[in-house]
Automatic annotation (TrEMBL), chain A:
This is DUF58 domain-containing protein. Residues 54-256 form the DUF58 domain. SUPFAM superfamilies: vWA-like (SSF53300). It comes from the Bacteria.
From TrEMBL, chain B:
Keywords: Membrane, Transmembrane, Transmembrane helix. It comes from the Bacteria. This is VWFA domain-containing protein. It comes from Methylobacterium dankookense. Residues 89-262 form the VWFA domain. The chain crosses the membrane at residues 53-73.
Amino acid sequence: MSGEDEAAGEGTGADIVYLPRWRARGSHPGAHRGRDAGGPGTFKDQVSFLRLPDARRLDLRATLRDPFEGVHVRRFEARVAMEVWALVDLSASMRFRGLGDRMALAGALCESLAASATRIGDGFGLIACDSGIREELYRPATRRRAAASAAASRLGAAVPSGPSAAGLLAAAARIAGRPKLVFLVSDFRWPAPLMEQVFSGLAFHDLVPVLLADPAEAEALPDWGLIELEDLEGAGTRLVLMRPALRRRWLAREAERMAALGRLARRHGRAPFRLAAGFDPAALSRHLLGG
Amino acid sequence: MSALLADLARFGAERPALLWLLPLALLPLLAAPRRRAPFAALAAVPPDALSRGLAAALSAAGCLAVAGLVVGISGPYRAGERITQTGIGAEVSMLIDRSGSMNETFAGRQPSGAEESKAAASRRILGDFVGSRAHDLFAVTAFSTAPMLVLPMTDRHAAVRAAIAAIDRPGLDYTNVARGLALALGQFGAASGDASRVLLLVSDGAAVIDPRVQETLRAAFAKIRPNLYWLFLRTKGSPGIADRPAGEDTPQAAPERHLDLFFRSLGVPYRAFEAEGPEAVAAAIREIEGLERDPIPYVALRPRRDLTGWAYGSAAFGLALLLLAKLAEVDLARGQPAPAARGPERRMAA
């Protein structure tokens, strides 16, 4: 698609290339292979003329080959549009700044998504949640490029403040309906029950978990030194004496968390995409096409 | 418990009003002046006992620093006190003759060259005696015509030696032993019951004791019951203690003999040493030293002690710990370069 030609490596200029896991349903003409026949798409099958009385698409070869002298008509796949949704966690932990800025990353991802989706005629919708849905950032799915990118840039300027991400459950209920491609953007620092609920609430859609990580949380930790950590979600402060042994335990704990998230995400469709320290649309495209 | 309270009660401060600031020492429990690194979720940090202990220690160091500064500013001290302790020794009241004849040598001349006057010899030997045992108590009284209180009963041997060092100053006038004895007896404290008490009379002559005064002295000796030692520095040729006079045997004719008789009649342990030279004096002193070996309770005066240094010292210790912690602070992701922007993507095979 067009994104590959433009992929110059600088942030939002490149398109995200995505393929849904399923044949899209719907009647809006668009860029994706639909479940229904009827359109200028690729060849789908042949049916009897009595089922589809369309003389323009008579398949002469099949008709002549038929020993029972039935008349056959070619059917083609419909190309339909679908909706791409970004569900963004705005709990206070998203305010974390290490080597990168989480909200800036999430904003860049959403802008790129909005541009990529609207360019090929898909709708882009955005829901931001902390403990409830942040209505001022809500954007129902739209094909208008300006509206979509305005919603995405509003998100980039938002300040995460909520104590939890429980609003994602309400967001899952809000986008119920036809299957959609859903990007779940979060750092996934949630309690395990909420994690399970959100993933199963979105299981009907093609769910792409986007894990916002930061090297400063794990592999870039110093070997030695004192750090006073302050929990962004209000769980107090803790003094930590960094030393190689503790760093190893810390990294092991992070790896275990990643593995658990990976297992959960794969059970519900796709492996999570790790977004750390710089958004690269081409990497996301590779992930989406390969995974 | 009460002993502990009594100990606590001895502590005081010069500006106690400032101690109202002490609750400030709890501030480090509320907040620490450390750089805070905002972090997404503390649950990601593995539990670590060492870090917890260190946090507690640093809070304690902060409290210690503030408390030490406040206490230091308020001027803490421990009040002085009197402590009764027990040692081996005796209460020694020295009664030293300062009459003019003490300035002469044992030969009865003015000292010249290497010769030593009686006063200088007794100064030297008594000075050694004072230093030899730690818990002796000494009082020094001098007498000539009138008694002089030189030093009350004390265990400060430096002061005693200084007092003894002063006895070879040129002496005065005559020998009036009765009033001297009364004052020397008065030097013994009333309290200490079982202590061994020694009255050491150093003189080179004697005098008549008025019979009226004799009764008073007898009463005082009976009450205090000291061991009495008379170190008689006899000038060559002068009558000794035991010498009967040629003529009439009256106190006026032989005051030494009659003073000796008076001492014997007191009913207290008594010995007289007749010394005709510095060696004899030293031998007599050694003998006295050997005789007087009893446990003695003595009162040590512990002076008021300024505790400001301790307070500031502990504050400095706490501050040093905090400073070390401050210097050890790092950021998350210290020393790691920000990841470089990725180069242009290669074309992807569709």
